[in-house]
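Lecture 7 notes. Example A: sequence first, then its structure tokens.
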Amino acid sequence: MTKPLLEVEDLRVRFHLRTGTVEAVRGVSFHLGRERLGIVGESGSGKSQTGRAILGLTPPPGDVTAKRLSFDGIDLQTASKRTLRQLRGGRISMVMQDPKYSLNPVMTIGEQIIEAYQAHKKASNAEARDKALAMLEAVKMRDPQRVFSLYPHEVSGGMGQRAMIAMMLVTDPDLLIADEPTSALDVTVSMEVLRILDELVSERGMGLIFISHDLKLVSSFCDRVLVMYAGRVVEELEAKNLREAKHPYTQGLMRCLPTLKDDVRPLPTLNRDPSWAL
């Protein structure tokens, strides 16, 4: 059996506040090969905190612990700061939810992609420029030369998200964490971004963690799915079998999905059981 690219066992993320300790992620365990793993759940279920913890991006007063947290045999908990800096953005990248909060407003798109590339690769300015332009073309950006010279406020949400994907993939990472990369986009642009991600993951043989609240999207795009509730994984199953879920929380989420065929009244709601959070 091929060794997993990422191994996570009993991951916990706690925030120590004046009012007490909040456990945002509670005992999450999974492994990831060179595949597409979806993590779904409501807002506040711990999806994004799981992705950030893997990259070591949990802000203070957050505290991350795990029985095992390794990437390609490297223990992410005991690795030096230098090793983590090399991995982060180099072999592991993360696409954030909204590009307008992630892109630097005072640098052009091209400058930011070049900076990301040269931070991990020894390359001249000319080589880095060529790589950045090639990456903008790879994410299906029209007129890459023009976009290269634009500032973030001069591009649309869809173009900004593609620029973010180009920046995160320019170093040819082995693992990409995509935190709701299509939530700020309209349906047409969203599908285009997903096609780009699908092509790049397939061509490069990367592992992908796709964080989303859109169950229909995840069921059609990913290979496996983790369903999170209150910081825990309540169910893990093949994406194609999402409609055959056994846990009542997953079943409830599926029933709440709107359909165009049936006019359901009253609209279904999710009845929560306190035991799900235990």
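Example B, a different protein, same format:
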Amino acid sequence: MAVIIDGKAAARKIHEDAKRRTAVLLEKGIKPCLAVILLGKDPASVSYVSAKEKALAQAGMDGRDLRLPASTSEAELLALIASLNRDSLVHGILVQLPLPRRIREERVITAIDPAKDVDGFHPVSLGRLVLGQAGFIPCTPHGITALLRELPVPLDGAHAVVLGRSNIVGKPLAILLSRRDINATVTICHTGTKDLAAITRQADILIAAAGKPALVDAGMIKAGAVVIDVGVNRVDDPSAKKGYRLRGDVDFKAVAEKAAYITPVPGGVGPMTIAMLIRNVVEAAERAG
């Protein structure tokens, strides 16, 4: 039976570190501040934003809650971002995704000052990641690598298979895993991959970020693998209080019988994503100060 990786416990360490660093900044008269922009009232997005704002408050940081109607135009959103770029009291800017289809996500992301891009999605941030330069690392991939470092398993030379090639998780994660400080050999799989299971069964470390509930079953992993489940999928369940349950991309019960380590959903990668965001905010304030 696999050891369950406790993302909440690992995240607490990062939050405590951010809190200590924030206290040092406060003594210098600098209060880290994150502006969070949310368009509309999508329940999942509202929940994510609330969790981020709670974490900011616990760390002693400021959070600007900028909730806009879903009808907000792209021009209005870009004007708001421009004003936040100019505001010296704001150290980080986060636009909650996804955005309405009529708004060009890429244009919004590139409008954010790279010095305040605490999500790590700006082309400048991703370019620095590729080149191994200092910059903001996307929070979910950064959180995953932090979890892996906590495990008593060899990472140097390990074969890591990443299911998913998004700009938010899959691609930056593959780059992080292949860096010399981790030194894994990385394979990226996607919808066009032939005989997917034949590849995933080779993985010492399998990261599922495909957005498909229970995609990975026990037959797709080798015994003793480390399995990181990034998926957060809402599956209808009339018996649940909210009418749905969260399910990962991994068939947790079956895979846990075969893996050495596995993250749960919820409680695995999710808390680490928020923790890394808080770390990025305090780093932005330190650089600006």
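Note on Example B: The radius of gyration is 19 Å. The chain has ten helices and eleven strands.
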